[in-house]
Amino acid sequence: VLVMGDGEVLEFDEPNLLIEDTSSQFYALASQEFSDQE
Predict the structure, then answer these.
(1) Enclosing H/E stretch for 23
(2) Sign (positive/negative) of CA torsion 18, 26, 5, 23?
């Protein structure tokens, strides 16, 4: 997964590794998406 912000690469790694890191941008995006679905 490649996560970009303001035209810059913020993170690049396997999805399972990024989702396990609670400080990652990918985790924040995924958490927000799942909370919006409830």
Answers:
(1) none
(2) negative
* Residue corresponding to tokens 């396990």: 20
pTM of the model: 0.76
- How far is CA 25 from its chain centroid? 4
Q: How would you write the pLDDT of the chain (38 residues) with one tens digit per residue?
A: 999 999 999 999 999 999 999 999 999 999 988 787 76
Q: For residue 27, how far is the Cα from the chain centroid?
A: 4
Question: Please, are residues 21 and 9 in contact by the beta-carbon 8 Å criterion?
Answer: no
Token duo for residue 19: 């989702």
**CA gap 14, 31 in Å, rounded:** 17
